[in-house]
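Sample 3 of the quickstart, ligand beta-D-galactopyranose:
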Amino acid sequence: MPGLDDATRGRILYGGDYNPEQWPEETWLDDVRLMKDARVNSVTLGVFSWAKLEPRPGERDFGWLDRLMDLMHDNGIGVVLATPTASPPPWMGHLHPDTLPVDQDGRTEWWGGRQHFSHSSAAYRHYAAAITGDLAARYGGHPALTMWHINNEYCTYDWSDEAAARFRGWLQDRYGTLDALNEAWGTAFWSQGYGDWAEIHTPRHAHYLKNPGQVLDFKRFTSDMLLECYVAERDLVRRATPHIPVTTNFMPLWIGQDAWRWAEEEDVVSVDLYPDPRDPFGAQNGALVQDMTRSQARGPWMLMEQAAGPVNWRGVNHPKPRGLNRLWSLQAVARGADAVCYFQWRQSRQGAEKFHSGMVSHAGEEGRTYQEVKQLGAELARIGEEVTDSHTPNDIAVLHDWHAWWAGAQDGRLSTQVDHPDLVKAWHRALWEAHLATDFAHPEHDLSAYKLVVVPQLYALTDAAIENLLAYVRGGGTLVSGFLTGVADEDDRVRAGGMDGRLRELFGIRTLHEWWPLDAGEYVECDAFRGTLWSEEIEKSEAGEVEAAYKGGELDGLPAVLRKGRAWYVSTLPEPDAMRDLLARIAVGAGARPVLDALPAGVEAVRRGDLLFVLNHGRESVTVEVPGAHRDLLTGATVQDELTLGRYGVAVLKP
Ligand code: GAL
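Result:
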């Protein structure tokens, strides 16, 4: 299978979504001039071009795209060619209302925005295949083509009749019999037993809480249907161009797609990443997504989209202060990205995203945004050849699984304050702040190479996953788990005892008597720290050792942090500093070391092959100890033992 290497050919890809159909052709020449000045070597064409490519059903207008493909090739710029299937032309919804998705209240999602396609619609799939096949036939042999980009951020849910029909088929494949479905969904509760497949619908608006099994399967089904759409288009382009890699762009930590499963179907894993420039944890959140994407890719990955300046979809949208775009871009390269790309090349003057930044902002060539983009392009070109090894294996894995997330995020749970992504962020941030480098893994992956495995929360676990965790600890690994882990099986059936018995035994828990969720702003005192969000009434087994106990209140003296040998259980969410210190202590015990010793807070060190990236996420200058002699690839300077980095400063050190 081809991979990202086939597109990068030893360089870092630099560029972004290019939507030239929004501009007169004279502008294209100016675009090319500015691209070359900024060392742009890759553009993504056609993401939202369906109405232009197929102005009426079955018609084709490829002339403008022919000229662009040639123009890019003549100027040494590679093209990531998108299938335009994320935004069907108005004629499609008009002629085929069944191509439009329907929300759970039965409201149609009309054209006039984007992503208004039903993944289940046979008509949509027909038109999508036709335009994809024609694009592959026309441009498969074009020398500018470096990669296929299928659709864009697959994310539509659909509760329509056609989706319901496919849902029934999907359920028949999964369960075989209605008895098995009734059993899995627990339909004995509230008189929900199904006697005929035709009675089953998508989980539409209901009077009160919906059946959790049905909702969980609908999430699985949605991810699978979108994947079917992706695979259908991928197979068409693959047949025409087996040597050209194929991708589709993920949204970070997005609930709708089982990205582990999807990544298996991609030649290149790519992600769109938009941390808020004003978020004090923007660097940490970016690092999380980058670690997750690299782990899904199991190698180099592509930063498909980021913003050079402000986005326009938050309540208040700030630009990036000087230097931040460079810092966060190099952070991605440090974590394995071989492509640094943006939405979009030139900021639009019309349309819903006219206040969303581009690499060339409304201020044009003289604007700070383009000037910084240009500087970064030169730097990426300088370091590109040196950045080769994509994946330095880390000692620590954070476990994450979409099915566990889906099952645990249902209505009717004990606390809506418990938000799965927030927990994953809190745990990953603690490791980041302890300067510990992490991968992500699925709970059924082989974990034996890791010294420490961290489970922020895996509410539902299969038996295979539980056995995998047990085997990992038996094999000498250290495991630390947060609360609400191992509560349910894959049907969201609560396991006997409120938590799987094998896991209770592993962590030294005799009885889990009750859960005591904490409200926003509420906390519980533990020995040396405060716990937030959650607490538990746990009775330890004889072998369990209390590492920290609750103090005062109902839980006085009961274990907050419990350990049995190398298996740790944290039944609350310690405040951030305590969480960092706890995980740092467990990591040291497990033999996992920080990337560099004595790193100041807010400074990040990341190894990529033999390169050491040092990134100052703060606004003050810092001095960092980097034992030995190095060359900074960005400046050419020699660095001996010590490095000073200014505000948002970065060094890429080679021994
Ligand atoms: C992404 C999308 C782009 C653009 C961008 C704005 O979600 O793929 O097309 O809309 O957001 O931030």
